[in-house]
Specification:
Blueprint: E1 2-7, H1 11-21, E2 27-31, E3 43-44, E4 53-54, H2 55-67, E5 71-75, E6 79-83, E7 92-96, E8 101-109, E9 113-115, E10 131-132, H3 135-138, E11 146-150, H4 154-164, E12 169-173, H5 183-190, E13 195-198, E14 201-208, E15 213-220, E16 226-230, E17 233-236, E18 240-242, E19 273-275, H6 287-307
Parallel strand pairs: 1-2, 1-8, 2-5, 8-19, 10-17, 11-12, 11-17, 12-13
Antiparallel strand pairs: 3-4, 6-7, 7-8, 9-18, 14-15, 15-16
Helix pairs in contact: 1-2, 1-6, 4-5
The chain binds flavin-adenine dinucleotide (FAD).
Flavin-adenine dinucleotide is lined by residues 7-13, 30-34, 36-38, 40-41, 44, 46, 77-79, 110-113, 115, 133-134, 137, 243, 246, 277-279, 285-288, 290.
Organism: Croceibacterium soli
GO cellular component, one term: protein-containing complex
Family: Belongs to the class-II pyridine nucleotide-disulfide oxidoreductase family.
Length: 311
Amino acid sequence: PYEVLVVGGGPAGAAAAIYTVRKGFRTGVAAERFGGQVLDTMGIENFVSVTYTEGPKLAAALEAHVGEYDVDVMNLAKAEKLIPASRPGGYHEVQFENGATLKARAVVLATGARWRNLGVPGELEYRNKGVAYCPHCDGPLFKGKRVAVIGGGNSGVEAAIDLANIVGHVTLVEFDGKLRADQVLQDKLRSLKNVDVLVSAQTTEVTGDGERVSGLVYKDRESGEEKRIELEGVFVQIGLVPNTEWLKDSGVALSRFGEIEIDAKAATNVPGVFAAGDVTTVPYKQIVIAMGEGSKAALSAFDYLIRNELA
Ligand code: FAD
């Protein structure tokens, strides 16, 4: 058994593992895909102190840093169930799809999240070639260009306001008959001169020239007409889904969006179970934040372990 088991091998999980092993705790990391979302990222320009890097390079650096220590890394290990300890200090159990069960006195949940995809032709093909999901990350790559933001909830409208300040023109495309964002955000959006808002518009395709995005096609749900917009970028903002399906019956409290609820010390409602990064209620989902949160969860796990003898 481990003293600390980290579930998830993205920036949050890697940071957590480095921090607990450096405290002398026997640490394991089990991840479905070590590296996490970083593996799907191309240019990274906001990883503070690193002017520019690329996802696969950062993922390799995470793995190398964890590899410097005596951490058991179990890749391709998908957790499917958490059974918390029956008393503080006891062993939690994590069951995996491959039939394995691991035990640990403290667990750090860092299973991340995934952007909801539109699921239309061209989206996957042009991912990182004009199709983007993170305005904080990729907004500046579209300086002066024309972009669309798909989704009229708070994140879509915030993204459109943010991008309008950087890019040449923004078209916000919403499927529904009206935007769902807070009124104050909608008012701000409509006050911006370089923004158009389309409602009742179903995005049906992202088009490109083989190299990069060149436009999008949508169906006007009122007239049934198919229309095209020429542009250079498409930001998909229809939801970030936390990877918590496997925690449903664990007793770990989730928000109404399915995020793990944590306090300021990254503790969940279950003693000895901590959580970090995109999978949690922490606001703003970014690499530097996930790393900070992973470190915090690890230090809290340390604090827990020194206060709770094996029960
Ligand atoms: P993740 O990176 O999602 O890692 C989760 C880990 O958990 C993975 O190892 C996964 O395989 C594993 N896992 C999931 N479910 C299970 C399970 N059931 N059992 C076991 N393991 C599981 N952020 C920036 O700061 N700058 C950027 O430029 C940037 N660009 C981005 C571009 C794209 C295309 C995307 C998708 C995201 C981008 N982000 C960027 C966001 C950033 O990648 C995330 O905030 C960060 O990776 C979150 O780290 P995490 O460790 O919390 O989760």
